């Protein structure tokens, strides 16, 4: 803190109650200065010799035969006038960052110019501001904070502009050149406290972080903060990432803290709305300057505060461009107070839709030029890495929101179908979401389960997911059959690759992923749809046979069930002995999997076995098969 002392005579002010007066020792006081309830009993000569305004006021009061002058409108109030009066009497006056601006505005009000007397108060305060205050980081911030109560005087005096420029210039300097103290509002680094664990006896100059100034500016009010950040950006030497970090810190201090409680309790949120508007206005345009999680928090705040539709639209578009940088926890936004759901899915769906729009048209955009439609490359098209990341993100999000007992099935399906075209290495994430929803919603109907399970492709499940699905009692029987079948296909492929002379059947080859990876990107392949829609449903004994075959293949071909033993006995002797290990299947099951709907009654009985309350004999078989499924590992 910088100080300035003016004058040399001892202080002869004395306070009595709410009045401040001189204790005159030589001359009786001949003027009373009134500022509200406070009165100053002073002498005319010292004041009039330095203040042009008091000269006019005293002349006017003499004509009215009144020795009291009212200056209640003086900026800074009695304390600022006291500084000016002491200076007029030649007494010691101490100026610092907290009172210098009030004294400057009061001196301007009293018109204490150089034309009245050389070395007057205005000149000396200006020198102190320029040579001391504006050169100091802390003092510049303190002075800028004090301008709020002195408007419009400090604005007319250009003091605010000088403070802002001083702060912005220091914030824009290279961190290696920062030599002043800036830690009064920030936790010190270990090296700054002298407890650096890597200290080897040689004291090194601590490294100054690039965002050293971020926390200090959070003390400013919204309007001043906005002007400072605009000036920092205009200087062009501060990276966009640092600007983004400054906005994030300010948002947590002025906007996001206890926001939901404030809204629910009906607290006035005018200042929070102003902070949100300023932050959105100041967001850097550079991609990656702020995190996707921070943008999602701003979107949530905009919804809670009822901000304009333009704010939400702009945020949704920006979040859509960097959705691949979000985490599942970022998307778990609580709903509005009038909703029963655990999470606000309606807020996430337009973001996903925006991301998918960028993925459309193969990265090309069209515009009309001279009555012709011209197609150009869209540089913002989504990369394959981003697609994989978003697919994984939404799969994880679906698994979390599936735990909500109040989540409607159409919303879950709609969100999953939005990203159905995105590539996935496996469909394990979708399977986890489906399984979680089935667990939390046991009352789903047969058709609802069918729609839900249709989101995943059984061919794209990993071996661990297949193991879990085979023993999952919540899955429909039809899905279990598909999982078992494609596990056999996978075993057949592995066997064929180990024996180059073998050749896969055409049926098996048609189920394999294509070379261009299209089947990986689709959530449900044509083969899966055919299996579900057109095949008959095997009985429980058929499923047990498939399961036994699968276990036999996993154990290296050992015979662990009668089904697999019979298959090995009926297989060809020499030429097909190696193939039978992973490729053989009961003809009865294959015919049911690939034949048309020749037995409607069988389908009906299978579907009925999945519906609650059914008591037909097939249900007993299905239940037994599910028990067996759980016992097999």
Brief description of this entry?
It comes from Sorghum bicolor (Sorghum). Residues 516-527, 538-554, 596-614 have a biased composition (Polar residues). By secondary structure, the protein is mostly helical.
Helices and strands in order:
Elements: E1 4-6, E2 13-16, E3 19-22, E4 31-35, E5 38-42, H1 44-48, H2 52-63, E6 68-70, H3 77-88, E7 93-95, H4 100-110, H5 121-131, H6 137-145, H7 153-156, H8 159-171, H9 214-217, H10 222-235, H11 240-254, H12 259-264, H13 270-282, H14 292-304, H15 309-321, H16 328-331, H17 345-358, E8 364-369, E9 372-377, H18 384-401, H19 409-418, H20 428-440, H21 446-453, H22 463-470, H23 477-498, H24 506-511, H25 518-521, H26 526-534, H27 540-554, H28 562-570, H29 577-583, H30 587-594, H31 600-610, H32 617-631
Parallel strand pairs: 4-6
Antiparallel strand pairs: 1-7, 2-3, 4-5, 8-9
Helix pairs in contact: 3-4, 4-5, 6-8, 8-10, 10-13, 11-13, 14-15, 15-17, 18-20, 22-23, 23-27, 23-29, 27-32, 31-32
Q: Would you identify the CATH H-level superfamily of one domain? A: Potassium Channel Kv1.1, Chain A
Low-confidence stretches: 4-26, 362-380, 515-538, 549-633
Could you say what the CATH topology of one domain is called? Potassium Channel Kv1.1, Chain A
User: What is the CATH first-level class name of one domain?
Assistant: Alpha Beta
Q: Which of globular, elongated, flat, extended, rod-shaped describes the shape?
A: elongated
Order of neighbouring strands in the sheet with most strands: 5-4-6
Q: What is the level-2 CATH architecture name of one domain? A: 2-Layer Sandwich
Kindly state the number of beta strands.
Answer: 9
Class of secondary structure makeup: mainly alpha
Helical percentage: 40-55%
Strand content: 5-15%
Major sheet details: 3 strands, mixed
What distance lies between the first and last C-alpha atoms, to the nearest angstrom? 74 Å
The number of helical segments is 32
Please, what is the average pLDDT?
Answer: 75
- The gyration radius over C-alpha positions equals 39 Å
Keywords: Ubl conjugation pathway
Pfam family, one: NPH3
Protein name: NPH3 domain-containing protein
InterPro entries: BTB/POZ_dom, NPH3/RPT2-like, NPH3_dom, SKP1/BTB/POZ_sf
